[in-house]
Amino acid sequence: MNQNQYALVECPRDAMQGLRHWVPTEVKISYLQLLMGVGFDVLDAGSMVSPTAVPQMKDSAEVLSALDRSASKTRISVVVANDTGLQQALDHEAVSVVGYPFSVSETFQKRNTRRTCEEAYGMIQPWAEAVNRSGRELWVYLSMGFGNPYGDAYSEELVLDWIQRLVNVGIRNFSLSDTVGLALPAEIESLHARVLQAFPDLQLSLHLHAHPSKVESKILAALDSGCRRLEGALLGYGGCPFAEDELVGNVPTEWWIRALTQRGVSTGIHHEMLHQAQWAASDLFSRYR
Q1: How confident is the model at residue 268, as a pLDDT?
Q2: Looking at residue 289, what is its pLDDT?
Q3: What Rg value do the Cα atoms of the chain yield, rounded?
Q4: H-helix or E-strand containing 44?
Q5: What CA–CA distances, in Å, run from 42 to 73, 123, 174, 185, 266?
Q6: Nearest one of 176, 164, 109 to 139, comparing CA atoms
Q7: How far apart are CA 60 and CA 182, in angstroms?
Q8: Average pLDDT for runs of 10 along the chain of length 289
Q9: How many angstroms separate the Cα of 113 from the Cα of each of 69, 107, 135, 146, 257?
Q10: Environment class of residue 179 by beta-carbon count within 10 Å: exposed (0-12), middle (13-18) or buried (19+)?
C-alpha cells in the first residue's frame, strides 16, 4: 500500500465471535463468500484458537477451506494466540495475514491469552521470523491501545515504548485497537499521528469500537490523523468477549466507505455486492445474537 492508497479491512471474525448462539458452518461459509466479492482488501475471517476459549470460531479452518478465492483480490486474515494456532494458520493455504492480539494492558493480556505482557512479548520474535519465512504478514493488534477499563497504567508513551520494543524484534505492521470504545476523537488523532511521526516506515491500522452516537467523530479523527488502513464490521456488530460483559460494537464498515467517498477517495468497493452483504449481515446477526 503506497501513501496515496487506502485499505479496508472487514472483520466478520470480530463481529461473530461474541454471539451467544452457534452460527452453523455452512452459514459462515455463505456469508464470508459473499464478503469475498465486495472488494475489501483484507477479510479478518477467523481464529486459530482454542475452541474452549472462542467456541464460535472452532470451525475456522473448515470455513476457510470451503471458500472460493479464485475471483477475489481479498486476502484472508486470522487471529492466533499461541504456537499451535500459529502453525495451523501457516499450514492453511488460504491465510495471507496472521494477527496477534498484544495488549498494553496487563489485565487484558491475561484475560485474552492467559499470559503477562512480557510473556506475550517473548513469543513475538520467533513468530515474526516464522511468518516472514512463510511469505505471510504478521500484524500485531495493540489491544487497549487507547486506555482500559481496569485501572491499569496507560499513556501514549507506554504505547510508543511497546511499539519500539516490538519493532526491535522485527514487527512492521501494527493495528492500534480501541478495544472497548474508550477513545475520544482527540486521543485517536493524537496517538495515531504520534506513531506515524515516530515510526514513518511502519504499516499502521486503526481498529475502532464505538457507540453509534460516537462513530462519525471517531471516523473523522482517524482520517484527519492520516490513517489509511481502516478496520470495521458491517452494520457495526461485534466486540471482544474477553474485554467486558457489555460488548461495544465495531465502527460500521459502510460508514468508513461513505466517509472516504465524501472525500473523493475511490474505494474499489462493489456497491451492489456491499448492499447484498449488508442484508446478509442483518439476517445473520438477528438470528444468532
Answers
A1: 94
A2: 87
A3: 17
A4: strand 42-48
A5: 9, 25, 14, 25, 17
A6: 176
A7: 30
A8: 76 92 98 98 96 94 97 97 96 97 96 93 93 96 96 97 97 96 96 96 96 94 96 88 63 97 95 97 94
A9: 31, 10, 25, 19, 32
A10: buried
Asked if 102 and 143 count as a contact pair (C-beta separation under 8 A), the reply is yes
pLDDT of residue 2: 40
Neighbours of 236 (CB within 10 A): 23
Q: What is the largest CA-CA distance in the chain?
A: 47
pLDDT given at position 238: 83
Are the CB atoms for 270 and 38 separated by under 8 Å? yes
Spatial distance between the Cα atoms of 195 and 29, rounded to a whole number of angstroms: 37
**Identity at 254, one-letter amino acid code:** E
For residue 65, give the C-alpha cell.
477451506
